[in-house]
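Handout, page 2. Input:
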Amino acid sequence: MFKSKKILAILLALAFIMGQPSANAKIDYAKNEDYYQKLCSKKSTYNANKKACSGYEEYLKERQAKSDKSVKSIKEKLADTKGDINKIIELIKENDSLITQKSNSIKKTKKEIVSTKKEIVVLEAEVLERLSLMQEIDSDNFVIDFVMSSTNLNDFITKLDGISAINQANNEVVEDLNDQKAKLIKEEDKLKKEEKTLKESKKIQ
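Output:
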């Protein structure tokens, strides 16, 4: 019986020795973190497994260094991302300012167009009135009677110049009216394009 106990003790000792890593074997702390954490957290077991616990401490330091490096990399990427976001925000602000300016310019132009249209209406009424008056004058042979009623040559020339001036003034009014209408059409076309561009800018933003 004594021999059996001795043999059993030897076998247990061998089993323990075989279960321990060799001096040259590298311990995989990552797979047994909980075990080494408990083993090395107590002074009694730490001293009994000093070499393994020292290796575990080095493993923790390396893991912490990798973690710090990873955190630093993430922070740098985050800083770059924040920088990009700030640039985008600044661009949006600038674009928003340009959109506001353009919108105000369009509103101003619209008011000017409305005002010009009113002026054209008044101008057209004046032109129609003058043309109507000239038709009445022509139908009654007013011009001939008016000129022939001259008392002398100077009076005759003055009356002819007056009639010529009236005709020229009428022609100038008509030309001015046509010019304003043409400018108004161009301005309205330009305004439509600007409004389209503005809508596209707002949509992109």
